[in-house]
Design a protein that fits this description.
Blueprint lengths: L7 H19 L5 H8 L8 H17 L8 H20 L4 H29 L5 H30 L1 H22 L12 H14 L1 H23 L1 H4 L8 H18 L1 H7 L3 H19 L6 H26 L7 H53 L6 E2 L6 E2 L1
Antiparallel strand pairs: 1-2
Helix pairs in contact: 1-5, 1-6, 1-7, 3-5, 3-15, 4-5, 4-7, 5-6, 5-15, 6-7, 6-11, 6-12, 6-14, 8-15, 9-14, 9-15, 11-14, 12-14, 13-14, 13-15
Amino acid sequence: MVLPSLSKGLVLLFAAACALSVANVYYAQPLLDALAADFGFSQAAVGIVISATQAGCALALLFVVPLGDLMNRRRLTLTQLFLLCITLVGVGLASSPAILLAGMLGLGLLGTAMTQGLIAYAASSAAPAERGRVVGVAQGGVVIGLLLARTLAGWITDLSGWRAVYFASAAMALLMLLVLVRVLPAQAPPARRLSYLQLLGSMFAMLASDRVLQIRGLLALLMFAAFSIFWSALVLPLSAPPYSFSHSVIGAFGLVGVLGALAAARAGHWADRGHGQRTTGLALALLLLSWLALAQMSSSLWTLALGIVLLDLGGQAIHVTNQSMIFQSRSEAHSRLVACYMIFYAAGSGLGAIASTSAYAAAGWNGVCLLGAAVSLLALLFWALSLRYMPAQKAVAHGAASD
């Protein structure tokens, strides 16, 4: 079946929907003080709100995202978005800690399922020659939504309280639902019908046998560990003297990463042309170089900003290229592939966060930067050693071998 080229407007709509859905997973992070005051959580216990959201993310990756390979993706996406609207209103009306935590679990589940499902939907709807570009734009939407969520939540809370954040998001989700009902492309049903248990079991088979998924997944684990090492520790030196920045100011540093995220969307285009491995090598070099700039934070905050741009540019280029490469085959399994891939992401993020705070406690900001550089160097070495085990990549549009 020859797929038509997706219009620029539809690709951008996929990106906007990804940004809207993923933002719901991160709105609560700058609101913990307000939630603690309203629901009686202690400062030590309020972290359970984030834990509930992350638990929902894990459940989505394991049990919901793969459904895109079993069900009608259009109907599944619209149903999830409708349920997301209801859940957002429920969180905004929450009157007890139990209801709040249940709502946060639902937001983590539905926000993650929507985001990763939309990426698989976009990849499956795109022609092979443009798949990397489409995934790159959609992933750019994810990063922008993630980075803007914290800032937007802070602004709305200052104006109207934390509940207004979720009511506003519900209104945006409803508007997006009305648009997507009209424009989401139809897709052919799966050629092979699997039971739900067979669907879940096939994910383990993919992890055990798909070499591209294994190699690119391990690269993702190391890259996201480096990301998490930086972002988990950044608040510690910036909130202490001599800076003593507020959380709003610290969160604004994340906006600098938008520049890198937008530039990294181009990586998918290069992957379509058969240059995925070269792009990966260059991106890993930028990731390693970023730590040199980040380590100079005490000399100038401009070097911190430069390091953030390099970190996001390199990391997101790797992320986009990874997804472009794993989506180049098995179009009937895109939802399961993205679910398996994001399990590596979750593992890397968790390990990086744990290691980061330990490194800061032991050796300060320089220890964090040394750890991040070591993980980035390990990723670069792993990529170089894995080249011989990767299948030759070809330019999809022209059929010419590259890399």
